[in-house]
Amino acid sequence: MRDIRIETIEPRHATALEQLQRACFPTLADSELMNARHFRNHCRLFPEGNFVALTEERVIGLGSGFLTDFDFDDAQHNFQEIIDGGWYSQHDPAGDWYYGGDISVHPDWRRRGVGSRLYAARKGIVRQLNRRGIVAGGLIPGFAAHKQAMTPQDYVDKVVQGQLRDNTLSFQLGRGFVVRGLLRDYIEDEASDNWATLIVWHNPDYRAV
Hints:
By secondary structure, this protein is of the alpha+beta class. It has a single domain, classed as 3-Layer(aba) Sandwich (Aminopeptidase). The chain is built from six helices and seven strands. A seven-stranded mixed β-sheet has the order 1-2-3-4-5-7-6, sandwiched between helices. Helix 4 links the parallel strand 4 and strand 5. Helix 1 (14-24) packs across helix 2 (36-45). The mean pLDDT is 95.
């Protein structure tokens, strides 16, 4: 296998990252996808917290996000409002939480450890910056096949209990995330029937200052 490198995002990656979005999320509406201009903006706002996976010089994965003070008492939100249409304008360098905007791996490179390394890079910057942890909206792309038989909550409960496997949520649970609730109308995605889970990873090394 060719070497896979995880590096921080640079403007030269922007066009390839736009192409990666389209390859990774064919069921998403165009309005939900980020483009090259968004990625160049991420380079300006928070380059150390946005990552690309490379093999030789080919972009095969992305882990993007920003820092914010997330309000768990008012947790309902949708993807576009929190990422401001992909611009990450809510980034606050002093924010306590890393909001995970996107983890994506090219279909040709899935199940080769790329996603795990991108999650590890996120955790690394959270530890380095001494932030409380990572919060994100995690899609449940396996739900559409079950939506006539059970509610979104029933589906998520079964995945958490190991009775069902969801390609996205099961992977995230395996990376140490926990489910804190459901997000309705989070994103326009047929596979998830527009639902997502609110997932959280707590930084075990966090120290209050």
